[in-house]
């Protein structure tokens, strides 16, 4: 399948693995790229630019296909040294960067001078248009369903994607709630040029996280995520657990007077314990509603092959069958 995204990034399938804190290591990124998608290393999971340089080199040893690096510009307690991270990206020969959070505008010259293609993750049409205006090559349109930070507008992808298609000239991928062949075909039908998956890629054999995390995703339903940090305009969708219930209760009591200090222990620095040690109650961790569509732990290649062959099947059989008026034989796409 060829789309504007496969052409832009030189990849076989229009499937991207979004940056994920303490998940997006070289092991997962290389597996996704080797399977024909676009794997992405999460830049800030590497504590220093030197460590990021090493992780890029490790990934290059594991794949000769294109892969990218995620740079997240979120409100942090101490601002990471972004220019140094960008230097590590440039010197590592990376040609694709996924930016997220705040606008990447001030870093665009440094990225573009190195011939890097930038895909910015946006949760609204207005931010997507800004990304287009400042020279981003593509956007990842992240709907309200998504794991991580869905923004503050709460517009689900059924509306957000066709709205993005109405306004944008640059290519975009659908992000948030994407899990399988049905997601890809739906995303393409709504005007996207491919899809970005986060949560689904955690439940794969190659994701370098504790098995407890993968089992938690298989066990979770679409009802098991919660939104936290709305009062401080840093909304995050996370999987429910004992600490998340504590956060929700603190937020209920504090209302608009909530500060990050009130929930610091439940949200800051908890990822290593969750992702690496498998302590599922250590704190809040990002997870999409799409957990309800995750029922197994395939290899990355099995997952991507299944999505691509399933998408062809849906388009060639189910959709074409509907056009030919053969409803009874078309059945359901499950
Ligand atoms: C555990 C986890 C950690 C994430 N960490 C980041 C991150 O550090 N930077 C970022 O830009 N997005 C991050 N995301 C968001 C993903 O890149 C992606 O946009 C999102 O997961 C898409 O929604 P989905 O989970 O429904 O597929 C994270 C998502 C998850 C599930």
The percentage helix is 40-55%
Low-confidence runs of at least 5 consecutive residues: none
Secondary structure class reads alpha/beta
Widest beta sheet: strand line-up: 1-8-7-6-5-4-3-2
* Shape-level CATH architecture of the largest domain: Alpha-Beta Barrel
Hetero groups? flavin mononucleotide
| Total discrete domains | 2
How much is the average pLDDT?
96
| CATH class membership of the largest domain | Alpha Beta
CATH superfamily of the largest domain: Aldolase class I
Quote the CATH topology of the largest domain: TIM Barrel
H-E order: HEHEHEHEHEHEHEHEHHEEHHHHH
| Coarse shape | globular
How much beta, percentage-wise?
A: 5-15%
How many angstroms separate the termini? 21 Å
Q: What key phrases describe this protein's structure?
A:
alpha/beta, TIM Barrel, binds flavin mononucleotide, globular, two-stranded antiparallel ribbon, 2 domains, 43% helix, 15 helices, 334 residues
